Amino acid sequence: MRRPVIGIIGNLYLINDEYPAHAAGSMNSAAVAEVSGGLPLIVPTDPALVEISDLMEVCDGFVFTGGRPNVHPEEYGHAPTEAHGTFDRDRDGVALPLIRACVERGQPVLGICRGFQEVAVAMGCTLHPEIRDLPGRDNHRMPPDGTLEEKFEMRHIVTLTEGGPFHRVWGKTEVLTNSLHGQGILEASDRIVVDGHAPDGTPEAIYVKDAPGFTLSVQWHPEWQAGLDPVSRPLFEAFGDAARVWAARGQRHKLTA
């Protein structure tokens, strides 16, 4: 049986500040290939270049990666401010409808950092542009300086709901994670279940209520050393299992309009 094809949602970058390129971090591709057992395929996030139905035909599951630009607050009914940072409306235009279509169809999705926020917004949540500014919250951003190892080092525990899907993935109700995000969920919708929190109460692990497929999303970056980390590996393995089930069921049929 062939490997499931996993679409990795890319970002738009400027190489040498002048050459535009759609790309995704190699650690995402490595986690998909080496831990999930899938064939990584980077998705260019521009609605002018891709059709949602075509992507769902080609891919068995999707990883919604992190990214420096944030989801535009108009997507959840808020006005943009300087605190919201930069945006990528083209990625919004691909990622958000793709998430909604996958959730409805039961096609596996894994959200990471910005991808976590995309899943939340697609399902009706609002975001806060700077979680550290809320009373009682910690600074969840990565250190501004240092090596990659220092930026991705373990920062805090996440406490999970006993008996929930994340508890079942890891067999424990506390895991140690890194932390490299500024935004976070402000108000959760009735479609999103917050299944894990940081010590300061920040939502860190979510899934879509009553979704027919895999919808686990995390606010941290499990792709970092995914093959070695005892938290990252089971998550990517579970996602890969879901993608294989999807592929085996032969449900990659042509979507109706």
Summarize model confidence as the mean pLDDT: 93
Report the major sheet.
9 strands, mixed
Structural class: alpha/beta
Please give the CATH architecture.
3-Layer(aba) Sandwich
CATH topology: Rossmann fold
**Contiguous runs where pLDDT drops below 50 for at least 5 residues:** 252-257
Largest sheet, spatial ordering of strands: 4-1-5-6-13-12-11-8-9
| Helical coverage, percent range | 25-40%
Task: List how many beta strands DSSP finds.
Answer: 13
Describe the structure.
The protein is an alpha/beta fold and 257 residues long. It has one domain (5-248): 3-Layer(aba) Sandwich (Rossmann fold), CATH 3.40.50.880. Helix content is 28%, strand content 23%. The chain is built from 7 helices and 13 strands. The protein has helices spanning 26-36, 52-58, 89-105, 114-122, 148-151, 165-170, 232-248, and strands at residues 5-9, 11-15, 19-23, 39-43, 61-64, 109-112, 126-128, 156-160, 174-177, 184-187, 192-197, 203-208, 217-218. The strands form 3 sheets. Strands 4-1-5-6-13-12-11-8-9 form a 9-stranded mixed sheet, sandwiched between helices. Helix 1 crosses helix 7 and helix 3 (89-105) packs across helix 4. The longest helix has 17 residues, at 89-105. The model is unreliable at 252-257 (pLDDT under 50).
